[in-house]
From TrEMBL:
Gene3D superfamilies: B-lactam Antibiotic, Isopenicillin N Synthase, Chain. Belongs to the iron/ascorbate-dependent oxidoreductase family. InterPro entries: DIOX_N, IPNS-like_FE2OG_OXY, IPNS-like_sf, Oxoglu/Fe-dep_dioxygenase_dom, Plant_2OG-oxidoreductases. It holds the Pfam family 2OG-FeII_Oxy. The lineage of its organism: Eukaryota, Viridiplantae, Streptophyta, Embryophyta, Tracheophyta. PANTHER family: OXOGLUTARATE/IRON-DEPENDENT DIOXYGENASE. It comes from the Eukaryota. Residues 516-525, 535-552 have a biased composition (Basic and acidic residues). Keywords: Iron, Metal-binding. Residues 490-552 are annotated as: Disordered. This is Fe2OG dioxygenase domain-containing protein.
Amino acid sequence: MLKLVSSWSNVQSLPEDYVFPRDKRPGEVIAPLCKTIPVINLQDAIANNRNDMVQQIVNASQEYGFFQVINHGVSEALMDDTMKLFKDFFDMPDEDKASVYSEDPSDVYGLQVFKDGQWIGVEPITNAIVVNIGHQLQLKFQAGNLQVAKLGYRKFDLRRYMKMEDHDFGLCNEKYVPESYIFPQEERPGELLIPICHNIPVIDLGKAASTEHPNTIEQILKAGQQFGFFQVVNHGISEDITNDTVRVLKDFFGMPAEEKVSSTTANRSGWVYTSSTGYAKDGVHLWRENIKHPCHPLEECMQLWPENPSKYREAVAAYLLEMGRLSLRILKLICEGLGLEPGYFEESSEVQLLSANMYPPCPDPSLTLGLLRHCDPSLITILFQGNVSGLQVFKDGHWIGVGALSNAFLVNIGNQLEIISNGKLRSAEHRVVTNSSEARTTIATFINPSPDCIVEPATTLLNDDNPPHYKPFLYKDFVHYSKAFGPDTEAIQKGGGSNGKGGRRLQGQMRKRKGREGSGRRQEGGDGDGPGQGREGELGEGDKGVGNRDGEENAVAEGADDEVLGEGFLESYVFPQEDRPGKLLIPICQNFPVIDLGKAATIEHPNTIKQIVKAGQEFGCFQVVNHGISEDIINDTVRVFKDFLGMPAKEKASSTIANRNGWVYTASSDYARDGIHLWRDNIKHPCHPLEECMQLWPEKPSKFREAVAAYLVEIGRLSLRILKLICEALGLEPGYFEESSEVQVLSASIYPPCPDPSLTLGLVKHTDPSLITILFEGDVSGFQVFKDGHWIGVGTLSNAFLVNIGNQLEIISNGKLKSAEHRAVTNSSEARATIATFINPSFDCVIEPAKALVNDLNPQLYKPFQYKDFVSTSNAFGHHSPTFLHCRSKSPNKPSPPSIIDDLATIVAYDDLVSTAVDDDLASVVRGTIIDPLNPRFDGGKLVLDSLLTLSRYDGDCQEIMDVLISNWSNVQSLPKSYVFPSGRRPGNQIVPLCKDIPVVDLGKAEGVDRSETVQKILKASQQFGFFQVINHGVPESVADNAMNVFKEFFGMPAEYKATFYSNDPNKSCRLYTSTLNYDKEEVHYWRDNFTHHCHPLEDNIQDWPENPTTYRDIVGAYSGGVREFLLRILDLIAEGLGLATGYFNSELSKIQLLSVNHHIPCPDPSLTLGMPEHCDPNLISMIHQCDISGLQVFKDGEWIGVEPLPNAFVVIAGLQLRVLSNDMLTSPIHRVVTHPHESRTTICTFLIPSSDIVIEPAGHLIDARNPAFYRAYNYKEFFGTFTGTNCDAESALKCFRV
């Protein structure tokens, strides 16, 4: 019942699946109610003016196609009762409506009619009925007589007509291009004339049997490399056979539409349709009719082809036999040219598919396409295009036309041949354009690998200089995931039989692909079934699966019916370019540490300890063998996890309920940035205390609890052995880890075979939040470690475990051991199952460097903290972290610390914004989404670890703090060298005049008759300047003055008192620092001290504020409340000017309020330094209270202008989010702060900032066909991560989100 909108209430935003493509939306344009729509008074039919009424109906039907009727004889009471009855029906309980729910189409209108090129609204008239003329009735008036128009239609079955309603078979008769066939501007061929290319390779196959044989091969290879296609003549196929085939196809396309539909039904694997096999982007049709059907085995498939025209099957079969012979000739020549063994393609290639197109004449070829830009999914495609050209190929950055040669065939290199040749040959992108004068009929024959064939680069083409560029995959998987034949792909795969050869590799050595022996699961055979279509172990209702190497089905491909990318991959699993593993082959590291634990009990004990320490320092992980855990226990555990993850989705969901602390999910436990999933299924659950947690685990499979518990007992013993050795190696007291470590979390994952491992990840780069993690990864590799600036692969060892050093052990060792960054990649051939067990400190344990490891030469690098705080702040277990904490923590419940992004992304945004090179650790913190460090997109665990690192050498050293704060300096005679900027960044001696044209808005006028003028002034200022000054703003002058005075008093307080607030720790919500957070690392400092804290909600933050000056909290509390109210008023006026609802910017868009006070003492040489760098504000809106000393400068029209301080005025600056929300109607200015030689300057900045997860995109009311959205949707934490990652370069950051 969730589908029924009548069951919804209080809908705040439009669900994504109700948002129409841009060209289908009604938009913001108001369709006026038309006052000239004909109204027919039916009483006139009885009166004397009956003929006049008939004439009115005819005129209305001709001009409008509809009319309204009054006095129609249906009583008003009956109509009112009926309307009320229907309203009552829709208000009924959901379960009552469910009994009559149906997916059959029906429409409810806010009625508008398309007339004379525009939409007009139909005004409801009391007790009137609207009559529409339907498809079945077309009237015309001739010589005063009403006649049924005789337009050449013949009789047909209405039911069949309704089935064909979505198919427009009348393209040949169109006088203009219908709207549904018009492509977006950027995809149209346009008016530009694409000339026919006259140097397209033409291969004379007749010469291949002569002394010209070597030259012919050379020509083919050269054509395949440079063009990706070529034409062939003298091919040996009789022109009569080709002509007969073209003739029957033309006859077929010329048949009445309903006969074509009845002749080709999808469940018989032959079908016809107008447009493409699937709709193109935004629902735009292709200008063509098409029939496609499978062709292999020919004898079987023939029986499924159309029976009419009568010679269809005979002619097409004869043609395909010739195509088979021709394809083998061409492939044989290519095989020879590439240096492959003879017969390389013969046994594994098939003439699998025929696709014939008829492109009718098009009234405007510049607006539409016959086929979209694409590459072919085949080995080769052989195209007969007749004598009418239309094929275009994309070469060297532009389109070229391919001319039609008499009795020639065009050969396209397909994706599979490009892969087999390891990129030596290339698959050309091509498209089909239309013409306005004549129809064009083409026949494309796809020669493909057999479905079970494993496609990979030919081994004979590989060497050290030419490593493989592609990973192996099953061809049927490629077809399935790329939807190579549109939505009919599955029917084609079923309809086309297999050659029974099983799974062969397209490489020299042919061999069968086989499942694992004795798995007890269905083995995939060569029956032509696509992945996930097996009969045994079929998925439950609603499950969509991906078959793995063992025939298992996994939920990771849920959404497989979603839109797929052009490269043939599920869009929600494709990572951004910079995060993908890519096609580069990562070799298995041959010197990866392997620790033989059996030797730890021998004379090799000291050497074993030494090996562990070395591995922990150099790699951050190692493998252990001879660990003492029975292989049977491991195998039993792997088996129950595979059985669990193979269960139907509903059973898994019912078995693992989040509030019972066991759960399963597809992809990550949290979505990553951009909503991208991980390529895996996973279950995780707590494990300590074991006896209690067992009762919460899944009950199915029946042996799940028993097997997993036995495994965890052994892992507990193994973890203590390993930690005991590490303890000894570090020189810690015996038993250091025993009482405080627990086997807390188990996380089991299955990574199904992936059609393109280069695009996605099983786990993103991260470190573990544990002491150690013990991973069993079976015999399928996929674990990679980031070492010395690049990734290395970790091979699998039989019955071995991989041990990761976690964040907590890195801290306890004071950095002596390292927590390795690692990830999981996928593969295309077989599933990979892993079990990760996290050995963590107890939740109340205080983590800090071991005292025995800290001395004068090795100072303490990390601050102490409770492990449960680390878990909460880093969200170490994803969005289930609070559940873990609630169930495991024995301390009283207390609010969780603010999330990293809500705290750091706001504080660092404005405190660290001033650094020209953002510190790597802090930038990472800000970029980090709050996700599961077991599977984070960015490394939440490492980020918190970095923030715990003692960032400042001044913490705790009062004297050094007093030395660095410039507010403690006096009578500075010369500028310290560390404050002198490079010449290209200095403000210099040039005087920047104070600009007199900066807009000044009198907010007092906004409540009177001048409101509209005030709104327009704000809008104009925000467009032209991006900022303005405001007077009469509503904040009492005494409140503003008191705030300025109290901040000056604070900076004048004794140095020892200010030192208590000094910190470079980004986790502190109230802090004082100098220059930037990167003071220790930056090459040059800014001439300022800064004091920052949160202000909203006031009651949650005021306790963190200074108690001295004694009036601080009262004064700043009143000021921050007044300023927030002022800024929300400004935002409402901006919303009004943009045509948005009042309050549009309130709540989540302006949730966070940050106060940041800068204090600049007199500077001995302002020409050499800056108070703040040039930047744009990344937030929603900013306000600056300038005091009476100038220093703010804005970059406008290529030069800096000074902003003159006005008495009791505020400067309002539009942030980058306001620019995006307004769709670039408003601008966000670049500004900076310069210093003054004689006066101190104190400024109070207030920032309104969106919450981290709020989705930001151009306001819908501002978008229409003429004003498309310039930015895609994103959440603020994603934007801020990008902003800091581009060194706070606004344009570079915005570019990442532009459409």
